[in-house]
Design goal:
Pfam families: C2. Belongs to the MCTP family. It is a multi-pass membrane protein. The structure is a single chain. This protein is mostly beta strands and 204 residues long. It contains 1 helix and 11 strands; from the N terminus they run E-E-E-E-E-H-E-E-E-E-E-E.
């Protein structure tokens, strides 16, 4: 019930190659659980923003009254990675030793915000639900930790997909929960939900 809402949320989007991308933003109004209305959209050309600084943008909504105030920073991607299982980070013993030294007790207060990182190996899924008329699915896997999100590629027409990917996340809050969700890719339509697991970091 506000015409001037403040969200104060931070989201991290990761780019692993030189791409010309637009950030598309939609503002929605929700009356109740069933009724939603689009209040407006706006777009930001990421490639036009200066690097390594916080850009304060006031973006008018297209064809609708109102505007969005945002802070957008474009910076080199650190602490997050996607790799194949065969070139897994931390596979090198000397690298593991450096990591152990970095996070040893005597270095705990060197960088308070550097809590650590989480490495997840997504190997495969077994006996997934068939979401297509052909009796198969086109599954992909999405990993979410806080407001960070990474995903695997899609394995088409398979109920027992093998992804064999390694994901590395920086940890910002030790109380976060890793959510791993499997979806069925459905062309231009929203993906179908195939299953989900949630793993609290404190249980690892």
């Amino acid at each position: 019930k506000s015409a001037n809402p403040q969200w104060r949320e931070q989201f991290d989007f990761h780019y692993f190659s030189d791409r010309k991308d637009m950030l598309d933003i939609e503002v929605w109004r929700k009356d109740n659980k069933k009724h939603e209305e689009l209040l407006g959209t706006c777009h930001v050309d990421i490639t036009a923003l200066p690097m390594k600084q916080t850009n304060r943008l006031e973006l008018p909504l297209e064809k609708r009254p109102g505007s969005l105030l945002m802070l957008i920073a474009v910076a080199p991607c650190t602490g997050v990675s996607i790799s194949d299982l065969c070139v897994c980070p931390l596979g090198d013993p000397s690298e593991r030793q450096q990591i152990s030294q970095r996070y040893c007790i005597k270095n705990s207060f060197r960088d308070i915000k550097d809590i650590g990182f989480l490495q997840v190996k997504v190997l495969k899924a077994v006996d997934l639900l068939a979401a297509d008329f052909s009796g198969k699915s086109d599954p992909f896997c999405v990993l979410e930790l806080g407001n960070d999100m990474l995903q695997t590629h899609t394995v088409y027409k398979n109920l027992n997909p093998e992804w064999n990917k390694v994901f590395t996340f920086p940890i910002k809050d030790i109380h976060d929960v890793l959510e791993v969700t499997v979806f069925d890719e459905d062309g231009d339509k929203p993906p179908d939900f195939l299953g989900k697991v949630a793993i609290p970091l404190l249980s690892v």
